[in-house]
Amino acid sequence: MLARFWNLFRRRQLDLELNAELTHHLESLEAEHRARGLSKSDARMAALRDFGGLVRTKEEYRDQRGIPMIETLLKNVRFSLRSMGRTPVMTIAVVATLAIGIGANTAVFSVVNGILIKPLPYSDPERLVRVAHLAPGIQLSDSRDVGSSLFLYFVHREQSRTLEGVGVFGEGTSTVTGGREPEEVRRFFVTSDVLPLLGVQPLLGRIFSQTDDAPASPGTIVLSYEYWQRRFGGDRSVIGRSLDMADDTWTIIGVLPRGFRAFRGPVDVITPSRFDRNQVTVGGFFRGSVARLKPGVTLEQASADLARLISPAIDSFPLGPGVTREQLQRMRLAPVLKPLKQEVVGDVGNTLWVIMGTIAMVLLIACANVANLILARTEGRSHELMIRAALGAGWKRIALELFTESALFSLAGGIVGIALSYCGLRALLTIAPASLPRADEITIDPTVLLFTLGLCLVSALLFGMLPVVRYARPARDAMSSAGGRWSSGSRERLRLRGTLVVAQVAMAMVLLICAGLMIRTFQKLNDVNPGFSFVEEVQTVPVAILPASVPDPVLVVRRQHEILNRLTALPGVQSAAYTSAVPMGGGFTADIIAPEGRVSTDGSAPKARQLRFVSPGLFETLGIPLVAGRDFTWTDIYEKHPVVLITQNLARQEWGSAEEALGKRLRSGSQGRWHEIVGITGDIRDWGPSRPLTEIVYVPVLAEQIYNTPTYIGRFITYTIRSSRSGTPAFLDEIRQTVWSVDSNLPMVNLRTMGDVVADSMARTSITLLMLAIAGVMAVLLGVIGIYGVISYAVTQRTREVGIRIALGAHGGEVRGMFFRQGLVMTGVGVVIGLGGAATLTRWMSALLFEVSPLDPGTYIAVAVFLVIAAGLAIYVPARRATRVDPWESLRAE
């Protein structure tokens, strides 16, 4: 077989050798016959008779020396390439159409592959799970679980029978000092168990041991490969050097390999948590915990194992401040384990599959369009195919040749499509929301290329089988084409092409309805009142003052207040304040809020409410209305007055009205300090415009007995500055210089306007809308082109008939109407089928819609009317051309 394969590349040389050998044999036979007395010509004829069929001998030899199937394929490829070169316009149209369809699918599949299909970049990722707990006895405002806790982590690590390892982690930011400007870095906080259970091996140095994770151990730190390259230039002598951060000075002990990612994305530095087991108490939930299952252990078995450890864990540690056994019993803790990949990806999968399905429809429409073009092209070759059949070409030979041409079209479209997908993917990642998980994993890798190859083969089958079935049997084709007149065969071809157009229109209808529903959703979201104003005028500035730099809570507030005063004095600033989290800016800060005198009579679970720590003036700056009462004052802050403000919906739920809620008291937890309600604010949608109104308790930035702590201070805060200059480079530079004039170690990153914050909260809807809109536009264009092509074909086929009709007195309007009816019937059938398909398929995207029904009649009617109008415009041009047919030419041809 190797010799046969090698001979494929030596055919010319082997043919020369064969001819020489055959010539030698013929000359020998001819010499023998001449020796017997025959003339030269008679001897030549006798030698040929004795030798047998010369051409047959050559063919048999060629079959034996090579691989006939590959040789036939190569011949078909060469012939198809020459044939494609003779019709460059048709070739470009087919390749471009396929490139759009295949390229769009490749780009979207790259995203699906990177986020949903690729395994996590850790050792044996299928055994990694997130450990969390449900607390059905508590009503959480966003219905999430309560995560894990340190007291549970220590018991899981020491007593679990099903876990090979378990660790606690956290992700956030920190400040690196010592440079010209403070640098904010992405930080991964881990216990010493986390990196080993992920299977991470250091590139340089070592990773954390239990000694590094001990409470009083010297600070050690591990760098990511990317940060090592960026800050230290890949210096291999970095081990043992110090890195100054705002909270401590850390000694570098290792560098991780290239590409390491934490669970929510890239990180710069990894530090040990250094928890003190002796200081751990029962409580303190919302910790992140990851574990590795032992081989062969299922999630159900591990959940049962951890469920039995809840009671021993509670008994092994003292109760935390404000935590009672009654409260723990009411929580009804239960473990919930999820594959780590599911936790990392979140709920983005449904959106991606909807987009993938719509883009797949674009490819189907493109294939239908190409099938029409290929049918027209093959019909032009019908006489050639009949001649080939008459010369002995069998059905299989002709079918293989036609399919080879289709495969080459598809392959060429795939190659161009990969280039388009590369550009499209870069643009897609540019506009993708920052919250898109595993975005750094999205790339065109071998899996994506294999998917593209599969798309090419499937596409070739979809549009390539029609001409094979229709034209590979020359006898049938000859009957349908006899006489070259408008015949039953021509009508059959027109029906086939019309069926393809109906399919295109139906799929375009589905895609346009999906895009229309997303447009309606986007409009609804934009119409939602978020509860705050001055969106484009408010600049947000995150600032963190860590305990290592300012340990005293009161001094922290004074420093924050000093920065606020200087920011307020900047030119053009109308007002300024700060808060622990801006609306729609993310962040989860909640506690069980107990209103005074409110006892549940129906046995309902206590409810956790959002907490926001704010300074005076925040509501004025953000344009949040004060419905009743008053705002905080700086006297409330510094004298630690036990006062709070609450949102109007919380007041209505607990006391019936805002006026009734004023003067009432509530507290954090079951044993916290009672705080008087001094003001009621307007409601806001803190989690985004598509989420329900949030019940919020606003607390002064310096408060006592919140979260069961003696004095709580918000160290991670965000300044909000209202000014007409917001977002301008000069204003941002002034803000940085102002903050650094108070504390030069505070990093200034992620400065956004509230408009940016709101846009980020709608980013997923925006990108879904964009992708569906692009798919809808491509579908309409391809559908309109298909309708235009079919009507143009019909006009060409019926030129003589139209000429005769005009000669017999038909008016131009009658001729146009004939073709308009034909086109509109196809469009109408496609629209009806598309409406039915959309009514079924759009139910899958109901989770993406907001206050819009998947069967929204306005959207369905608008899309149907738009598609009919677009089809009418496509029909008009060839129909108008039909009225210009010269009847004398038609009669002369008859």
Q: Could you outline the blueprint of secondary structure elements for this entry?
A:
Blueprint: H1 2-7, H2 11-35, H3 40-51, H4 54-65, H5 68-86, H6 88-117, E1 128-134, H7 150-159, E2 163-176, E3 183-190, H8 194-197, E4 204-205, E5 220-223, H9 225-232, E6 242-244, E7 249-255, E8 269-272, E9 288-293, H10 299-308, H11 310-316, H12 325-331, E10 334-339, H13 340-345, H14 348-380, H15 382-390, H16 395-431, H17 446-471, H18 474-481, H19 488-527, E11 538-544, H20 553-568, E12 573-579, E13 590-595, E14 608-614, H21 618-622, E15 626-629, H22 634-638, E16 643-647, H23 648-655, H24 658-661, E17 665-668, E18 675-681, E19 696-700, E20 702-706, E21 709-713, E22 716-723, H25 729-742, E23 752-753, H26 754-761, H27 763-797, H28 799-807, H29 812-841, H30 857-882, H31 887-893
Parallel strand pairs: 3-8, 5-7, 14-19, 16-18
Antiparallel strand pairs: 1-9, 1-10, 2-3, 2-9, 4-7, 5-8, 6-7, 11-22, 11-23, 12-22, 13-14, 13-17, 15-18, 16-19, 17-18, 20-21
Helix pairs in contact: 2-3, 5-16, 6-14, 6-16, 6-17, 7-11, 14-17, 14-19, 14-27, 15-18, 16-17, 19-27, 19-29, 19-30, 20-25, 27-29, 27-30, 28-31, 29-30
